[in-house]
Design a protein that fits this description.
The protein has helices spanning 26-33, 96-105, 111-126, 200-212, 261-268, 284-293; strands spanning 39-44, 47-48, 50-51, 54-55, 58-59, 67-72, 75-81, 138-140, 145-147, 154-155, 160-169, 173-179, 190-193, 215-227, 232-243, 253-260. It is α+β, with helices and mostly antiparallel strands. The structure holds zinc ion. Zinc ion binds at residues 130, 132-133, 135, 148, 150-151, 153.
């Protein structure tokens, strides 16, 4: 039985998000903004500031717009957007490079908060206007809703589902692909966006077939991971090999091939003779690979 059991990096924010009637009560929100122990995570043009291995928290002094993340044991916690870096919009709060650095430095329990702040601030930066009529929208419910004053449309923060699949041929070999943009020797599980009108199972089968020519049979959900760069939720699956010979079929996938258990273990243990590199430990792809190989994932690195 393959089941992912170790904590997933970028989860575990542990806040009371107050996603009930409290957020819809302006008086309650005003009381949170005026709370003497209210704190904020500030996103400025350089990104998110760290304080050692934690996100830096500063006293909240009523800055607008007030994005209420939720409540922890010390009181309300806000995200404040001090603005994106200069350049063409929309600028994401964190790119993958910054993510890699933050993932290496942050305490594991901080990853969920980082993902929450990044996803929410990124969405507000990229969605200032109504998708229906183009009017400027207004933040409400402490930042978990934007409403259009012109046409009354409601816009909720987006989360875009992405399926990521480790195709396995029993315990002997796994199918991995290589994107042209990745570091040399890096191979990983196959991934793609879920399309409109498609189930997760259909998306898994389609993406694997499109990227590798492989037909899969039974599949099992393993784990999920927020990937807010800018707005994805990674949904991890194991899928059983059924038929076909792997060959790269999509432009961005330059190679796709089977790797043996010995190959994978050598890569996990960073043996000099390993024929590939596997993804870093903070990525759900690595979690799937480690789970298949029977290796417990270590702390995010
Ligand atoms: Zn509108």
């Amino acid at each position: 039985m393959l089941s992912a059991v170790t904590p997933m990096p970028f989860t575990g924010a542990g806040l009371d998000r107050a996603t009930d009637d409290r957020r819809r009560d302006p008086d309650w929100l005003a009381a949170q903004r005026a709370h003497p122990r209210a704190r904020a995570v500030v996103a400025d043009p350089s990104g998110l500031a760290l304080d050692g291995d934690r996100l830096k928290l500063t006293p909240y002094r009523g800055e607008e717009p007030a994005l209420l993340l939720g409540l922890d044991a010390d009181g309300p916690l806000f995200a404040v957007d001090a603005g994106p870096p200069p350049g063409p919009p929309p600028a994401a709060i964190l790119g993958v490079d910054a993510l890699r650095e933050a993932g290496a430095r942050l305490a594991p329990a901080e990853g969920g908060l980082l993902a929450y702040v990044a996803a929410l601030v990124n969405w507000h930066r990229r969605h200032p206007r109504c998708a229906c009529c183009g009017a400027a929208t207004t933040i409400t419910e402490g930042g978990l809703l934007r409403i259009c004053p012109a046409c009354d449309a409601e816009h909720h923060p987006r989360t875009d589902p992405v399926v990521i699949t480790l195709v396995i041929d029993g315990t002997e070999r796994v199918l991995l692909g290589r994107n042209v943009r990745w570091p040399a020797r890096r191979y990983s599980a196959l991934a793609g966006f879920v399309e409109p009108g498609e189930s997760l199972e259909e998306a898994v089968a389609r993406e694997v077939a499109e990227e590798s020519g492989i037909e899969v049979g039974a599949m099992r959900y393993a784990a999920s991971q927020p990937w807010p760069f800018p707005a994805s939720l990674m949904l991890g699956f194991f899928a059983d090999y059924r038929a076909g010979e792997p060959r790269p079929l999509e432009g961005e996938i330059e190679d796709v091939r089977w790797y043996s258990r010995a190959d994978i273990l050598a890569a996990i243990h960073e043996d000099p003779g390993a024929p590939l590199d596997v993804p870093p430990r903070f990525a759900i792809a690595r979690h799937l690979i480690d789970t298949w190989a029977g290796v417990t994932a270590g702390p995010a690195a």
